[in-house]
Amino acid sequence: MLLDIRGTCPDRDPIRARARERGRRYVEFGFTPSGSDLREIGALVERGALRVAVEEVLPLQDVARAHELSGSGRGTGKIVLTLR
Fold first, then answer.
1. How far apart are CA 84 and CA 74, in angstroms?
2. What is the DSSP string of the chain?
3. pTM above the 0.90 mark?
4. Tens place of pLDDT for every residue, the chain, 84 residues?
């Protein structure tokens, strides 16, 4: 299953098509996260029940590069900025 938490948008059509091609179910939903929701999501990640696709991990000083990557439209995962 491919899960998209950003909601329904026309730019999801290519993602929907890729999911179908790969035999995956594409699901969209939205929510307003609370502390307990985020803890539950964290627990799912720790148990391996939910995987997060990380494309790039960059130090905070490379925030301009992260912004460039996110705006490219070619991303396949999350861009993570580290504080240390």
1. 27
2. -EEETT---GGGHHHHHHHHHTTPPEEE------HHHHHHHHHHHHHTSS---EEEEEEGGGHHHHHHHHHSS---SEEEEE--
3. no
4. 555 655 556 677 787 888 889 888 777 766 677 888 889 888 988 999 888 788 899 999 999 999 888 887 777 788 899 997
Largest pairwise CA distance in the chain: 40
Residue 39 in tokens? 């803890």
Quote the CA–CA distance of 69 and 74 in Å, as a whole number.
8
Which amino acid appears at position 61 of this protein? Q
Q: Give the separation between CA 15 and CA 45, rounded to whole angstroms.
A: 22
How many whole angstroms separate alpha carbon 55 and alpha carbon 10?
Answer: 23
Paired strand residues for 28: 4
